[in-house]
Amino acid sequence: MGTRDEILDAAAEVMRTQGFAKATTKSIAQVAGYSEAALYKHFDDKAAILLGVLHERLPDLAVTLQGLIASAGGSTVRANLTRLARTAIDFYVEGFPILVSLFSSQSLLTAHRRRMAELNAGPHKAQEGLVVYLRAEQRLGRIRRGVDLEAAAALLFGACFQRGFEVNFNQLTPAAEEVDAFATALVKTLYDALRPAN
After folding, report:
1. Where does residue 37 rank: exposed (0-12), middle (13-18), buried (19+ CB within 10 A)?
2. Which of 115, 128, 130, 193 has its CB surrounded by the most CB atoms within 10 Å?
3. Domain 1-57's class?
4. Rounded to whole angstroms, how far apart are CA atoms 69 and 163?
5. Domain spanning 60-198: CATH superfamily
6. Using CA atoms, how far apart are residues 180 and 20, in angstroms rounded to an integer?
7. Which intervals hold domain HTH tetR-type (predicted)?
8. What are phi and psi of 34, to 5 degrees?
9. Which residues neighbour 164 within 8 Å (Cβ) at sequence distance 6 or greater?
10. CB-based burial of residue 90 (10 Å sphere; 0-12 exposed, 13-18 middle, 19+ buried)?
11. Which of 57, 104, 62, 88 is closest to 157 using CA atoms?
12. Is 101 left (phi over 0), alpha (psi -120 to 50) or beta?
């Protein structure tokens, strides 16, 4: 494991326990066993470290979405959406403690929002990716015409986010089978509204 990976491991630990707002580059460097200067050799700023944690230390929504888009027409829409929902639930369960502290300060949130825009990143990217996938499936006739794809994407991610919030708020540790069952039920309900009439 290299320096960058060790920094990301330390950052994930610090951000999970302290939240993004209270995590400092100094505390991340201390936990990683490096100087702050070493952090800046690999990351431009704390926002870049956060993105590294989100993309490399949490379940990867972007990779799952890219896989769905690339394989549109393969597998079933329902199976694809269930896999995505499962990944999204895990992402929000693990990411919620890190991200919630962004909202503790309006100035912090504004600065972070500005930095995410500069990096062409942010929570809207997952929803946009899902709409691209759903549109491809719609063109193939596997999703009913006239469905509001943006609303469908918002419903899926909104339910997954809510589940992540509930798990963290109630300090739950659901078994993998429970998460699978929730993802399956969620997608069945959504897919019933998306599937073409036979």
Report:
1. exposed
2. 130
3. mainly alpha
4. 25
5. Tetracycline Repressor, domain 2 (1.10.357.10)
6. 29
7. 1-61
8. -130, 170
9. 89, 91, 92, 93, 94, 95, 96
10. buried
11. 88
12. alpha
DSSP conformational letter for 122: S
User: Residue 13 is encoded by which pair of tokens?
Assistant: 């630990």
For residue 94, the Cα-to-chain-centroid distance in whole angstroms is 9
> Can you give the residue ranges of every domain in the chain?
1-57, 60-198
Tokens of residue 117, six digits? 């825009």
Dist CA 179 CA 147 (whole Å): 27
- Per-residue H/E/C for 42-103: HCCCHHHHHHHHHHHCCCCHHHHHHHHHHCCCCCCHHHHHHHHHHHHHHHHHHHHHHHHHHH
Q: What is the pTM of this model?
A: 0.87
